[in-house]
TrEMBL record:
This is SGNH/GDSL hydrolase family protein.
């Protein structure tokens, strides 16, 4: 399980919640001396299906005990008890683990005997509905933050497609998820034009070494700079 990466020397500028993709943002903020609360609270797979329950007065409880503990510690840093009282923007990566959504074997049922998808499948309404169903837990979380009127910013994931994932599904699913978040009032932080090569994949300068899915601290610094440009 991941550990919190809050900084508490002065008033936090934002609450960071997410999977391991949130780690580079936390490291960049810590290196810059920018105070924040929270950090990664689980793995990407943990935040696709239903993972929390919501209650009255903005209350929210995570199903996983370790995630709940880290979440409560972050709220304590901000001296609030629920997201309803959140005094700063929320930066969140829940549901944006596109490589997990794109796991090849999960999509084999939609391929023909030659291993190809039907023409237009990744841009179809059926595909979009399947992706939304896969990340329904994350979408429910963002429905909750929207109902609370919170400002939420979601950095798109590193453009890295490991061998277990289908590239076509990765890129198409990411766009579907981003659109679903936008419909819920979430501000997506999209740095693809700055970090990818001509193939659409993350350039090595922004990749974690000896790792197939994560962005490095340089990538986190770009995200942090964009957050600051947006007033965090």
């Amino acid at each position: 399980m991941t550990t919190p990466s809050s900084t508490t020397t002065t008033r936090a500028r934002f609450l960071l919640l997410g999977d391991s993709h949130a780690g580079c943002v936390g490291r960049a903020a810590r290196d810059a001396g920018l105070p924040f609360a929270g950090g990664p609270v689980g793995s990407g797979r943990d935040f696709l299906g239903p993972f929390c329950d919501t209650g009255a007065a903005g209350g929210l409880t995570f199903h996983a005990a370790d995630t709940e503990r880290l979440y409560r510690a972050a709220l304590d840093t901000l001296e609030v008890t629920t997201l309803a009282g959140l005094p700063v923007p929320l930066v969140c990566t829940f549901g944006l683990s596109a490589h997990t959504v794109a796991t090849r074997q999960n999509w084999d049922v939609h391929r023909d005997r030659h291993g190809a998808f039907p023409p237009g499948f990744p841009s179809s309404r059926l595909f979009a509905r399947l992706v939304a169903a896969t990340v329904r837990g994350a979408l429910a979380f963002y429905d909750h933050t929207a109902a609370l009127g919170l400002r939420v910013l979601a950095p798109l994931p590193p453009q890295r497609v490991p061998a277990m994932a289908d590239p076509a599904v990765f890129f198409a699913a990411q766009d579907v998820i981003a659109a679903e978040l936008t419909r819920r009032g979430v501000e997506t932080v999209d740095l693809r034009h700055r970090v990818t090569d001509e193939t659409g994949h993350q350039r090595p300068a922004f990749c974690e070494r000896d790792d197939t899915i994560h962005g490095n601290t340089a990538f986190g610094r770009l995200i942090l700079a964009e957050l600051l440009d947006r007033g965090l």
